[in-house]
Design a protein that fits this description.
alpha+beta, single chain
Length: about 150
């Protein structure tokens, strides 16, 4: 489910009003579209209590395999780098949040540069990630970013 700018869209963009099944609110209007294919990043900024961490994951957006008419929202179908298993494990180890930022316009390096300028720890999940080294990077970050 994407609640993001339609600049990532490929093809038509629509608006649908569908029932909201939670809470006691009016049915919302939602943008409905499919994202472009190709490289992108998903990022999550988390609060660790005494510091912030920006988790940046390279992803590869793919074509949606089947229409999803019962999912009235924008969609992006991607594979995290280096694989779903390693990417998900690293994301969880780093404390990755459910809500993320997604872009196909910025690179992981640009997001990391922003984090550095703000004094925020940045961790990267990309094609070179392996869990043993990733755990060491997280331990080192806990010392450097106190």
């Amino acid at each position: 489910m994407l609640e993001v700018c339609p600049s990532i869209a490929e093809g038509p963009i629509g608006i649908k009003v569908c029932p909201l099944t939670m809470g006691d609110r009016e049915d919302p209007a939602r943008l409905v579209y499919t994202s472009k294919t190709g490289p992108a990043i998903a990022a999550s900024l988390i609060d660790l209590g005494n510091r912030f961490r920006l988790i940046i994951n390279d992803v590869e957006c793919k074509k949606v395999e089947k229409p999803m008419p019962k999912l009235p929202v924008a969609t992006a179908f991607w594979t995290p780098q280096p694989s779903l298993a390693t990417g998900a494990e690293a994301w969880i180890l780093a404390g990755g949040a459910h809500h993320t930022a997604f872009t196909d316009d910025l690179t992981a390096e640009q997001m990391g540069d922003w984090a550095s300028a703000k004094g925020i720890e940045a961790v990267y999940i990309d094609k070179d990630t392996n869990i043993r080294d990733f755990k060491k990077d997280l331990q080192l970050g806990s010392v450097v970013y106190r």
